[in-house]
Design brief:
With about 375 residues, this protein is of the alpha/beta class. It has helices spanning about 25-40, 80-85, 100-110, 130-140, 145, 155-165, 210-215, 235-245, 260-265, 280-290, 300-305, 320-330, 345-364; strands spanning about 10-15, 40-45, 65, 90, 115-120, 150, 170-175, 195-200, 225-230, 250-255, 270, 295, 310-315.
Length: about 375
C-alpha cells in the first residue's frame, strides 16, 4: 500500500513523458514544471528517453527517473515508480499519455493519488474512419473512471471535453499553457533572405505541411519563402514534394528550433495547416509578437485564438484555394500587422490551486 504524506496540498507532483525529441506537449510540460518548481513544489519527471533537443529545456531542480527506453510501452512502469515515491498528485500532460494514466489507475486502484490530465489534442477527429472514430469515442467515454480532473486550454475545448468524455462539467477546468518565453541560450535559427512564411511543428502526418508546400507556387508573391521549424517522420516525403515542385530554393526545413519566437516575429505570416490540433500554441506565440496567422480550422480553439479579423484568417482543412487566398491577403504589400496579443492570467497558480484542492479533498 502507498504511504501517502500527510500533506493537504500538492507538495510533490509526478509527471511523465516519452521522449525529449521535440513536441508542443512536452515543451509545455517543461514550462509548467519549471513554474511549479519556482513555486516551491517538488516535481518528478518519469522519462522514457532523455535524448532530444528538449533536454536543454529541462528546468533546474526537477527530479528525473530515466527509463532508457523511448518506446511508449516503457511508461507502463509508471505505477511502480508511483508506489516507490508516493507523490501527492500525478499529472498526465496530454492525450497521447492518457493510456498510461488509465493503466496507472488500474494497477494502483484506491491507492492511486489524484490524477489530472490535460486535453492537448482535438477530441472530435473528422479524419478518422468509421471504425476508428467509434473506438476513439468509446475510449474518451472511459476517462471519467480514471481521471479526477481534466484541464482544457480554452472554454470551447472544455465544452468539447464535457460532451465527448461525459466528464461532469465541475471536473473540467480551463487553464491555458504558460506563455513561451525567449531563450537567449538557444541557437539562432538560420533565416531566409527576404520575406518568408513560417510554420512551426513536428514533421508528422497530423501537421499536413504538404498543404503549405503545395500552396507556395500558387501565391501571388513568387519570391516568398517558406520556413518550417520541426523534425519528424515526414521529412523525406516533404523533401521529395519540394523537389517535385522545383521549390528547393524557396522551402527551408532546418529542423528543431530551441527558440522559434525570433523567427516567428520576423515572418510575414505564421501558417498552420494541421488536420487536427488541441489548442495550437504557435498561433498564440505568433499573435504575441504581432505576426498575423493563417490556419486551418483544425480545432474548436482556433477561432478563440484568432478572435478578430485583424489577427488572421481561418480556412477549412481541405480548402486549398482558401489557404492560398488567406496567404495572399496577408502577404499583400502594405498590409497592417496585428497589435501584439498578450497573455492574461497566471496558469501556474491556477494549476497549483487545482492540484491543492484535489489533494485536500482526498486528505479529508
Amino acid at each position: 500500500m502507498l504511504q501517502h504524506s500527510i500533506s493537504s496540498s500538492a507538495q510533490h507532483i509526478l509527471t511523465y513523458a516519452q521522449t525529449l525529441r521535440g513536441g508542443g506537449v512536452e515543451r509545455a510540460l517543461l514550462r509548467m514544471a519549471g513554474g511549479w518548481l519556482r513555486a516551491g513544489r517538488r516535481v518528478t519527471l518519469v522519462l522514457g528517453s532523455a535524448e532530444g533537443p528538449l533536454a536543454a529545456e529541462l528546468p533546474q531542480g526537477i527530479e528525473r527517473i530515466d527509463l532508457h527506453d523511448s518506446g511508449y510501452r516503457a511508461l507502463t512502469a509508471l505505477p511502480g515508480h508511483v508506489r516507490a515515491l508516493a507523490p501527492d498528485l500525478i499529472f498526465c500532460p496530454g492525450n497521447h499519455y492518457s493510456g498510461i494514466a488509465a493503466w496507472t489507475r488500474l494497477r494502483l486502484g484506491r491507492d492511486c493519488p489524484p490524477l489530472v490530465a490535460k486535453v492537448s489534442n482535438a477530441l472530435v477527429r473528422a479524419e478518422l474512419g468509421p471504425v476508428a472514430a467509434w473506438g476513439y469515442r468509446r475510449w474518451l467515454r472511459m476517462h471519467p473512471a480514471f481521471v479526477d480532473a481534466l484541464v482544457a486550454m480554452t472554454p470551447a475545448m472544455a465544452a468539447e471535453a464535457v460532451a465527448e468524455t461525459g466528464m461532469p462539467a465541475e471536473r473540467v477546468h480551463v487553464i491555458a499553457n504558460p506563455p513561451a518565453e525567449p531563450r537567449p541560450d538557444a541557437a539562432a535559427v538560420p533565416l531566409p533572405a527576404g520575406r518568408y512564411i513560417i510554420g512551426v511543428g513536428r514533421l508528422e502526418p497530423q501537421k499536413r505541411w504538404d498543404r503549405a508546400i503545395a500552396a507556395l507556387p500558387r501565391l501571388a508573391d513568387r519570391g516568398i519563402k517558406l520556413l518550417i521549424l520541426g523534425e519528424g517522420s515526414q521529412r523525406a516525403a516533404l523533401e521529395a514534394q519540394v523537389r517535385a515542385l522545383g521549390l528547393e530554393g524557396r522551402v527551408l526545413m532546418p529542423g528543431h528550433a530551441g527558440d522559434p519566437l525570433p523567427a516567428i516575429a520576423g515572418a510575414a505570416v505564421a501558417l498552420l495547416t494541421s488536420d487536427y490540433e488541441g489548442v495550437p500554441g504557435v498561433l498564440r506565440e505568433a499573435l504575441s509578437v504581432g505576426t498575423p496567422v493563417v490556419s486551418t480550422e483544425s480545432s474548436v480553439a482556433v477561432r478563440e485564438i484568432v478572435a478578430a479579423p485583424e489577427h488572421g484568417s481561418v480556412v477549412a482543412r481541405d480548402d486549398a484555394a482558401g489557404l492560398v487566398a488567406g496567404l495572399d491577403y496577408w502577404l499583400a504589400p502594405g498590409r497592417a500587422r496585428p497589435e501584439p496579443v498578450l497573455s492574461a492570467g497566471d496558469p501556474i497558480a491556477d494549476y497549483l490551486a487545482l492540484f491543492d484542492g484535489l489533494v485536500a479533498q482526498r486528505s479529508r
